[in-house]
Amino acid sequence: MAAHQVNVYFWLIDTIASGHLTREDINRRWAHCRYNENGESEFPERKFHRYKEEIQEIFDVDIRCNRSHNYYYIDNKDDISGGFTRKWLLNAMAVHSMMDQAQDMNECILYEDIPEGTQYLSLIVDAIKQRHQLRFSYHSFNSKEEYELTLAPYCLKVFKQRWYVAGCPSTHPNERRIYALDRVKNMRPTDLSFIYPIDFNAKEFFAPYYGVFRNATPTKVLIEAKPESAKFLRLLPLHESQKELRQFNGNTFFEYFIAPTFDFIQELRTHGTDIRVREPEVLVEIFRKEAQKAYEMYCQ
């Protein structure tokens, strides 16, 4: 499939998703679209319906027409928003379309650098589908030298714009480990196959954790948030287990069932004194000691 055709798919989905549009509305936007290479004054009728059918088949996005008011809309928006993969794909498509059309506006749109490693995504997806192991060089932050390993890949996860692959290394067949793709070099497929474990569920594998570190035991965590941070947490929960319990003196108490890993502790730190950890005591002690060190550093 040509890249230009995919870009038109993206543009058409994003355009119709923006609101109820008539064919005249779509034609006006198409006349000024950068993907309109032939300078057409309207989106050709036959081409429009063919692309609409192909979008349904490829992306499971159902574009329909309201005959009473003669506008087009996406019929299965609820299904799309409920399915994480499709929702993530559509968001990615919308951003891709916006960035591609705004190439002459770089001074007005600021992007965040994405670490390397995304070039391996399709290779890993194919390896998971075909059940074949991967071979690559890896250099972790805790190792002075890089090393070679063979991995049976089980799933992919993105966290703060870094991609990770989880699976079983051949040297530790009873363990499931996680590798950052931006620390990977020279990844290639092997002739070695593997059996995908029936007891592995990617969502459950990461469920009790914030991020990718899994070096702590899940437990109940209770925090007290000041009003502004409480608003932020309601809008963007720290974790799917978040529960709002009560309010006291203007502050709000939130409860989690989560492992207090390095990633989670780092996230709590970003809120500064707007959040206070109440339980468990071991986590309270970590913040207490850090506060003491900060006091000694700046006040003595």
Strand content: 25-35%
Shape: globular
> What is the domain total for the residues?
3
Low-confidence stretches: none
Q: Number of DSSP helices?
A: 10
Across the major sheet, the strand order is 6-5-4-3-7
By DSSP, the count of extended strands is: 11
Protein structure class: alpha+beta
Average pLDDT works out at 84
Distance between the termini: 66 Å
- Indicate the multimeric state: single chain
Over all CA atoms, what is the radius of gyration?
24 Å
Helicity range:
25-40%
Biggest sheet details: 5 strands, antiparallel
Describe this structure in words.
Helix 1 packs across helix 5. Strands 6-5-4-3-7 form a 5-stranded antiparallel sheet. It starts with a helix and ends with a helix. The relative contact order is 0.07. The protein has 10 helices and 11 strands. It has 300 residues and is an alpha+beta fold. It has 3 domains: 3-105; 118-206, SH3 type barrels; 219-299, Alpha-Beta Plaits.
Quick tags:
10 helices; alpha+beta; Alpha-Beta Plaits; SH3 type barrels; 11 strands; 38% helix; five-stranded antiparallel sheet; 3 domains; 300 residues; four-stranded antiparallel sheet; single chain
